[in-house]
Amino acid sequence: MSPTATPSSASSLLDGRRFEGVVLERGKTSGDADTLIFERGLFRSTACDRYGYGDGPYTARATGDGLAFEAETESAQYGKLRWAGSVRDGKLDGTLTMLRDGKPTGEKWVVAGEVK
What we know:
Elements: E1 17-25, E2 32-39, E3 42-45, E4 56-63, E5 66-75, E6 79-88, E7 91-100, E8 103-114
């Protein structure tokens, strides 16, 4: 999907929203600062910029008490990241699964609050 793509109705549920927080390894209490950006049907994690991950398409759907989302970003050097999470009351909770050659190689958590 190109950066000027028009969002689908599903992705427009989160378009224009930003969340600041942290990416953590499982079992850790500190990690890398991150801003998660949903814009024009694309998802971006600023913590992943330095590893060559770009914007990737995302989908979002309403749930009983918030929104659920999924996204995938890719780096030529490190492979793909598959993101999944939820947004409730301005708080984003999610996971990212690292994939190399289509196989999971690790998982991290992300916790963030919406930037108003």
